[in-house]
Automatic annotation (TrEMBL):
Protein name as annotated: glucose-6-phosphate isomerase
Coiled-coil segments on the chain, per record: none
GO function terms (MF aspect): glucose-6-phosphate isomerase activity
Enzyme Commission numbers on file: 5.3.1.9
One Pfam assignment: GPI
Native species: Flammeovirga pacifica
């Protein structure tokens, strides 16, 4: 039985409508849905079968009494839910990208703080999207786990359990955006995630990179950012609205990013 996680905010994924239900006192947008036909060009097997609606996104959700405060802090909470299933040999996943640089962050790329709500996730990340990708990690997350992607790293979010939909929340910079150029120039990230016949995740090296090595790990506790692994990240924001300042202002936390390990 999947671990039940209380996400600390009255918003829930609706797997029948593929939308999010916003409870009393909460706000959120109409979801953006990514269909299989819309992402076929990015897939290993463009003509593969899979769910017609692959994932839905709700950027900028929260409690109504925090809405203006979040705007003022340049901070945004987003939600994503993936369908269950697979895309041919591939798991359901996002396209690999790097967060674009932000003027608000003094031209730093911005980090992201993930929290897994349901399903099983792998947050894959690599230091660079150049010929030598640097350190490469596949961080396995289950409901309640927090995983931080540091500034400038290329990454993708993968649903590792095709039998259950994946849902996650994330703290992001409000001026979020994605840079795909270097990743697409290398035909993807340094490792391709594939599902075998037993629905287990396997990793295939991308030949357009050199000397890549993959470390598969569980998330650690991010003491340098005072993250409490026992408390939902939205609730941590309620308790201390400055805790996630490092997301829109990573430039103020340079020492914490040196030799960062997810």
């Amino acid at each position: 039985m999947e671990k039940v996680f209380d996400q600390g905010i009255n918003i829930f994924a609706n797997y029948e409508s593929f939308e999010f239900d916003y409870g009393t006192g909460c706000f959120g947008p109409q979801v953006e849905v990514r269909t299989l036909d819309a992402i076929r060009k990015s897939l290993l097997e463009p003509q593969c079968e899979g769910p017609s609606k692959v994932y839905s996104i709700a950027m900028d959700v929260g409690k109504e009494n925090h809405q203006q405060q979040l705007i003022d802090q340049h901070l945004l909470f987003g939600l994503v839910t993936y369908a269950k299933g697979r895309l041919g040999k591939e798991p359901i996943r996002s396209q690999g990208h790097i967060h674009k640089t932000s003027v608000y962050a003094n031209n730093w790329s911005t980090p992201e703080v993930y929290e897994i709500w349901s399903g099983k996730a792998v947050i894959y990340m690599q230091e660079y999207a150049k010929d030598h990708p640097g350190r490469c990690y596949a961080v396995i997350g289950e409901p309640g786990d927090v995983i931080i992607v540091p500034p400038f790293w290329a990454h993708a979010t993968i649903s590792a359990d095709p039998d259950n939909p994946l849902t996650f929340g994330a703290w992001c910079d409000r001026d979020y955006g994605f840079d795909y150029d270097d990743v697409r120039a290398h035909k993807g990230l340094a490792f391709y995630p594939l599902l075998n016949d037993d629905n287990e995740l396997e990793w295939q090296k991308n030949p357009h990179y050199k000397d890549q090595k993959l470390e598969i790990k569980k998330p650690r506790i991010y003491t340098e950012f005072d993250i409490d692994p026992t408390t939902p990240i939205y609730k941590q924001y309620v308790e201390n609205n400055q805790k996630f300042e490092f997301v829109p202002r990573p430039d103020k936390y340079k020492e914490q990013w040196l030799n960062f390990i997810p």
